[in-house]
Amino acid sequence: MKLPCLILFILLFCVQSLSAQSDKKDLANSSLLNDSSKNVTVQNDSFPSKPKHIPRIATRRSALIPGWGQAYNREYWKIPIVYGVLAIPTYTFFYNNNYYKMCKFAYDAVYAATIPNSSGNVDTSMLALIDPKVKKSDGTPLSLADYQNYRNSFRRDRDYSVFWFLIIWGLQVVDATVYAHLKNFDVSKDLSMHIQPSINPMTRLPEMGAVFSLKNPPRQPKIIAR
Length: 226
Fold this sequence. Notes:
Elements (H helix, E strand, L loop, with lengths): L1 H33 L5 E4 L11 H10 L3 H5 L5 H37 L29 H39 L8 E9 L6 E9 L7 E4 L1
Helix pairs in contact: 1-5, 2-5, 4-5
């Protein structure tokens, strides 16, 4: 299980880094507002501001409960997808774990009935307790080597189910964090692009240039000095 732990550690490190960057950004914004004189107050009562979308809240909520961060981002359509994908490794875990236990018991029963103990006797009392699902069609047990292979196979698949469950959980945390950061991006009509041809004075050849500009919103806060 070294590989799943390593990948989980990398995912948690990435999420923590995104959260730390968000905290630094909020701290920088608050410090810029607090550097001005205490006698100056910004008043914008005429235009109430929209509540700010905080990415670290989406990160922490998704880390606690899957889909909670998507609900904070108002992406409710992703919640059934998150739980639907998480249900796959959950089902495979219980399926493989159940068969692992049955094969393990069958292996121990066949081993006790095949290999003599210290007193030179074999114990066949547990053979009747083997689940019919892991027996042959005629009701006889499989060989010791077959039970050993099946036991190891189901145990490996069970461990992989845990691995994929942690990967999917981490991916939905990353998804909530990334889309929470994108919520603060400006995609309104204030963004504009202007393209015009020009001539390069060095090469005297025509070229095409593109300029992106951000229009300032007409609303400005009122500054009142006390």
